[in-house]
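Hi R.,

Quick one: here's the Helix-turn-helix domain-containing protein sequence you asked about.
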Amino acid sequence: MTKMKDDQDDVAIRAASKIFGDMLRRQRQKSQWMFRELAEKTEVEEDIISQLEAGEPVGTEIEHERLCEFLGLPVDTFAKLIRNQRALLETTGQSSSETMPSNVVKISGYRNKWAKTTTHPEA
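And here's the predicted structure, written out as tokens:
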């Protein structure tokens, strides 16, 4: 696999994880399950559930499926999200730097501007 393809896969997995986490959190809250209760019912550790809801790419396929099944989501939800994100990246041709979250700032563009507008006192 090429470096760009690896980058696109990483971006797709991160994006899918974020969407998946939002879906899990909404379903859990809608069903009024606490982390502890959901962990007991699905045999998925509380910290894994918490990290998944935070959008982190953690857990196994089996854990994802258990959570989906218990919360009433299709068991292949995460796999579909990854496929959709990969397809989106392929059709838009975006690289990982173009798909950065909006709260990430590229500081390189500010360095030159800062250097021109800032004076350094002589020692």
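The helical segments are 3-30, 35-42, 46-53, 61-71, 77-92, 108-117.

Cheers,
M.
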